[in-house]
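To whoever is on call:

I kicked off a structure prediction for a single chain this morning and the downstream step that reads the tokens threw a length-mismatch warning. I double-checked the sequence; it's 312 residues and nothing unusual in it as far as I can see. Pasting both halves so you can look.
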Amino acid sequence: MKYLISSLLIFILLIGCTQEDKTLKGVSLSPRTSGDEDFLGFFEKSKQTGNMVMWAGDWNELPDGAPKVVTELSSTYGYTPIIEVTYYSQGDGQLIRPFNETIKELYKNKAIEFAEKYKPKYLGLGIEVNIMYEKSPDDFEDFVIFYDEVYDTVKEVSPNTKVFTVFQLEKMKGLTFWSDGTLNSSKAQWFLLDRFDSDLAVFSTYPGLVYKDPSEIPADYYTEITLHTDKPIAFTEMGWHSAASPQGWESSEEEQAEFITTFFNLTKDLNKEIIIWSFMYDPDTIEPFNSMGLRNSDGTAKSAWNVWITAE
């Protein structure tokens, strides 16, 4: 009897470890519309996409606004929230507001207040920061110093929070968007990984802006990351468009679904902790991101929907 009880306890512990170590998968906050019904409906449907919901946006929204909503609804809808904040626009590299000492103190205090109140499991400080390295090296260097300071203070008030910054993977590799997929190793930015104290190596990835078909993605496209870091890896933004445009880069629902299968095949041996698809529904934004949803803007599912929810 003692042997049986011991065996059962070991089995239970092993099951618990397996569940804890399972990759977190989900989508970013992307309801079909801003109406109350669609907003809450998003969280209900997100249960099918995985066990995580991410919000990313202006640092100034901490500790309230959307970060608060996404965090507090997590217990109701049974997901792990992930919050990422940015201080500049990825589109044009412009600072959202002057990155002076007053703003830095504001950002720091907001991050500390949020971390102290919610003890979040994940908190991202800076999104696609290597784009700022390209656009404005001085502002980037300023952020590196600031990030380390905020990292330390967040850890003081919430030691178990995993703090990180996000890099744009295609840029890290030295690839150029809307090109022929030629790698320019002289433009690679892997060295930036070592500039930040970070609990995870986190990336956004949009290979559909480089390759015209998922079959063109090299076999080592994602495993290359392990040559530059031994940290757990996360992809908190990923996508592939489904529209028959732009010209020369036409895609389809079938191609979008094929990318999801390809991604999971190419990353099966990675130590992945988080995988986030950027949009549940097609968003009202610029091409090609406006067709990257797993579902159409009218709410109907694309081919990629079932592929995503069953992928492991």
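Update from on-call: the warning came from a stale cache, not from the record. Cleared it. Sanity check on the structure: The domain at 24-310 is CATH 3.20.20.80 (TIM Barrel).
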